[in-house]
Amino acid sequence: MSIRFLKDKKRFIINTKSTTYAFDIVMDHYLYHIYYGKRTRELPDPAFRSVSFAPYLAGYDESRSPDVFPQECSFYGSGDFRPNALRLSSDGTGVSDFVYCSHRTFRGRASLDGLPCARADEQTQTLEVTLLDEVSGCRLKLYYTVFSSLDVITRYMVIENGGAGCVKIEKCMPLMLDLGRSDFDMISLYGSHCRELNFQRVALHHGTQSVYSKRGATSHQYNPFIALCDRNATDEKGEVYGFNFVYSGSFLDEVDVDQLGTTRVLIGLGSDCFSYTLGAGERFCSPEAVMTYSATGIGTMSRSFHRFVREHIMPPEALAPHPVVLNTWEACYFDIDAEKLIRFAKEAKQTGFDMLVMDDGWFGLRNNDRAGLGDWFENPAKFPNGLADFVGKIRAEGICFGIWVEPEMVNPDSDLYRAHPEWALRVEGREPLRSRHQLVLDMSNPAVLDYLIARFDETFRGIEIDYFKWDMNRHMSNAGSVVLPADRQGEVFFRYMKGVYRLLDWFATRFPNAVIESCSGGGGRYDLGMMQYGIQIWTSDNTNPYDRTMIQASAMLAYPAATMSCHVSNPHGDLRSLDYRYKVAVGGMLGYELNILEMSDEVKQTIAAQIAEYRGFEHIVCLGDYYSLAFPTKYPYSAYYYATAGAGELLLTVIEKSGCPKGSTKLLKLKKANPDATYVDVRTGKTYCGEELRAGIRVELSGERDQAHLYHLIQTSVIPGYENTTV
Ligand code: DGJ
Questions:
Q1: What DSSP letter does each residue of 645-675 carry, written as one string?
Q2: Residue 237 Cα, ligand 1 centroid: separation in angstroms?
């Protein structure tokens, strides 16, 4: 059993493969956080110290103040002045104080009232701890779901209103972790459209540091993943705590260093874009937050997250070979029609593609980005014989078919908006702000969902669709809903996301054979919530290979390669650039967006060879373990490799950035190689012994533009114990 309760000490202990997490019930009231770190039996006892100005319960002294000891959950207004996990009130004060009541453990996990959450397997166990706030009559249930072999614990909370009146939740942070020190660096990923996922590592300081979104989507600006690590932690050494959130809307990650030099981490919905009123007998379930601990550096944290996402977040289809798609966006933008795309499909088939994805421009009067969103009818001028006839002809070429949708949006210039202006998010009396000439549909309104479901059902009836690209191209301002009363408008952001998940669930059920690629102007919703629905995420609208090298390296800190949709675009007939772009793109799930009708035979043959080669090693990228050798913010090149389970196959990539020193030789140690084995690089036929790979493979940097090096190493000799190695 991973979860134990020691009655005499009133102590909960959660053990995973390599970590221990523990907390005690103290004073028959609080949950005192004891420990999170390397697996151990030596757990300290609670330690109390007196600090002046610290409020305490009647009958105790200030050493027992919730303001000075580490806790599992803290409540606004009841003596803990640090950032709190929960602010809830029945009387307008925001004050609550939940006291331990009971607990239970169970196999598996509970579902989250329509929110995405990590899938359980036969080993998953959950601890539920129930607390009571007597004044409001609310129960708070804290959940700890344990994925032992991956060293991952997830957390969420449920609030049940057992009182007679309404209560309002004003801040909700399902993951709170108090750590007894503050000499950490904080890693976070910031950016903007086309510049997603920049790596930032800075020392913690007193006060609160945070990343957040108030945009209604997780956003390009900050990703919900953060990590705290030792100041000298590297990929292979040092303590690291990693955190993430299974949610795709506005969020808050807060890290606070207090007066005593201790650190509090909070992951959740925050308070700016969230409040929720519960009537008597109602319940609220928060999204789920995720944490892991590594005693052996950042690389171990990343690999734990990668396996967790692959095995417990992404749909099982994400582990099957991904279709290599030809997407029409960068080739055609809005200039598409049936005749042209059927020619695309013919060429795509001959070049070895699996699928043609018809991007934006097929519906309504969508000839540019000013009109049409919401009118999900095919444009008869572009598809004179209808969508079904067109898709039939694409499939007749022997290729699968994918289509772009942006269900959450509406253009003011659309029939939908003219009929239902009240279906867009808006605040009475204020003209809604535009972004990309569009408004956001009120996905918290059941009538909007019903319309979208009926519309898509009708338009796609009888059409075989293999793939949806689900886009979202603006953030939410004027976020008000006509279906909520004034005192519940704070619920819009959360209810919106539940509406989006409901629609995604409908797509998954209605089109059981189709997969989804999630996108929000590139990586604006690169999060664990969307990953539950998609086989991959469009990583960025920026397909420049130099920029992509940085973006992809940062994404790999928290997310597996299977999530990263990486397209080769615009080589302009330059074969060297095509090769470079390919070697960058194969760090994730390969696809292309280029005008295949304008490509020379030589370019098409090169692409065909690239696709054929990729099929031979995609499984290593998709399912293998990832090892970073040179992170591109630190070095003038990027180097990393993937290794299959048992290291029977290795895929090493070295990408030179511009300004790489000419002629220098890098020694890259592939420490996962089996020492007694022989490997052959199937690209060159050159052989290496495992010991040599572990000691370091020598790669000479050319120092020229558009240079990258790829090694696909397969073990040729059989060594005992590895006879049946497969991934
Ligand atoms: C933004 C996406 O990121 C692009 O790939 C493309 O699908 C456009 N939207 C279409 O409008």
A1: GGGSEEEEEEEEPTTPPTT-EEEE--TTS-T
A2: 40
Catalytic pick among 354, 541, 579, 625 = 541
- Measured CA to CA, the distance from residue 360 to residue 366 in angstroms comes to 8
Q: Is the CB of 404 under 6 A from ligand 1?
A: yes
Q: Is the CB of 517 under 6 A from ligand 1?
A: no
Q: CA of 719: how far to CAs of 629, 646, 716, in Å?
A: 26, 11, 9
471 CB within 6 A, ligand 1:
yes
Which of 578, 594, 623 lies at the terminal end of a domain, its last residue?
623
Look up residue 340 and give its two tokens: 């042209």
727 falls within a domain: no
- Nearest CA owner, ligand 1 atom 6: 329
**Pick the catalytic residue: 253, 471, 527, 625?**
471
Structural domain count of the chain: 3
User: 683 and 577: one domain?
Assistant: no
**Can you give the residue range of the structural domain that contains 209?**
3-313
Alpha helices in 203-353 (DSSP H): 297-308, 329-332, 338-351
Query: Mean pLDDT in each 10-residue stretch from start to end of the chain (727 residues)?
Result: 94 98 98 98 96 96 96 98 96 96 98 97 97 97 98 98 97 98 98 98 98 98 98 98 98 98 98 98 98 98 98 96 97 97 98 98 98 98 98 98 98 98 96 97 98 98 97 97 97 98 98 96 98 97 96 98 96 84 98 95 96 98 98 94 97 92 93 97 97 97 94 82 45
Distances in whole angstroms, Cα of residue 385 to Cα of each of 337, 404, 511 = 11, 19, 23
Catalytic status, residue 471: yes
Nearest to 209 by CA among 228, 234, 181: 228
Mutate to test the pocket of ligand 1, among 404, 408, 468, 548 (most ligand atoms within 8 A of CB): 404
**Domain closes at, from 590, 623, 656:** 623
Find the CATH number of the domain harbouring 657. 2.60.40.1180
372 lines ligand 1 (CB under 6 A): no
Specify the residue with its C-alpha closest to ligand 1, atom 3: 521
One domain for residues 411 and 484: yes
Tell me, what CATH number does 517's domain have? 3.20.20.70
Residue nearest to atom 5 of ligand 1 (CA): 541
